[in-house]
Design a protein that fits this description.
Layout: H1 3-22, E1 28-31, E2 34-40, H2 47-53, H3 58-64, E3 77-81
């Protein structure tokens, strides 16, 4: 084998190991008759954001994860609802005018709302 073939083989092996590490099984747990799965909190995430992502409330999350009352920490493992899929694509909503008059025949322009998570170093 030449050195190029060896490099390709090593890269293939590394990629295979990377795929195995990223496809770890998720533990599930039933609490009060509802199914939950483990979720590892990422740096910069908020409890409100996680609740929105998994279509649940802060109160429900605190009920299932009592330690959240002391604050959310990155790399912590918490339980989130297993039945609802996390939303990964931006939500599209229609902007509605604050004062909608029935007599006004013109419709307000429709705007698309996009969710963006601010990263360190970004400014307005």
């Amino acid at each position: 084998m030449n050195s190029k073939s060896i490099k390709i083989a090593l890269l293939s092996i590394a990629f295979g190991l990377f795929q195995c590490v990223n496809s770890t099984a998720v533990a599930e747990k039933t609490i009060n008759g509802k199914s939950y799965q483990e979720y590892v909190v990422k740096k910069g995430e908020t409890l409100f954001g996680i609740c929105k992502k998994f279509h649940t409330t802060v109160a429900e999350m605190e009920k299932v994860n009592p330690s959240l009352k002391n604050g959310l920490k990155s790399d912590a493992t918490i339980y989130v609802p297993a039945s609802s899929q996390a939303t990964t694509s931006p939500k599209k909503e229609t902007a509605k005018p604050a004062n909608s008059n029935a007599s006004n025949s013109e419709e307000a322009p429709v705007r698309e709302l996009v969710e963006h998570q601010v990263k360190p170093g970004e400014t307005l």
